[in-house]
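Q: What structure does this chain adopt?
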Amino acid sequence: MKTWAGVLVLVLVATPTAAALVGCGGATAAARPAPAPARTGPAGRATAPPSAASRSRAAKRARRPDEPAKITAQHVLVKYAGAKKAPATVTRTREQACLRAEEARSKLEQGMSFADVVSAYSEEPGAATRSGSLGPIERSNVVPPFADAAFELKAGEVSHVVETDFGFHVILRTE
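A:
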């Protein structure tokens, strides 16, 4: 478990037998009950903690029968050195990227709009001009951990930090 500036940062990782909390540095901590999913008010402002399933680092489930074929979503992407498609100009470590993504999520909880958080934190090319919008997506359009998190959310919910090969994401399901 890692602390940074007195703040404990945790990311949930689902395992086949039980869920375990993992700090940004990768050390396992004792499992704790997951908070309820975040709901957003106007302009994508987070109003509650995210769902445990939305913090999964690996695909753990198939499409549910009641799950829509497509959803729309926005996201913040924080890259780190060595992440897939990260330019050489990105020098932060994986842990620093995780902490930055947690900071972005915290800004949403404090009432900052999703568009403003994307502008301030996202490193996806063109994200700021489209407020992080991915438009309509199907599970097959995105990597499994992202799909699991995005499709688990209800419209208006914001995920916790989700790790993929591209970096760390915070996802807002819009439809």
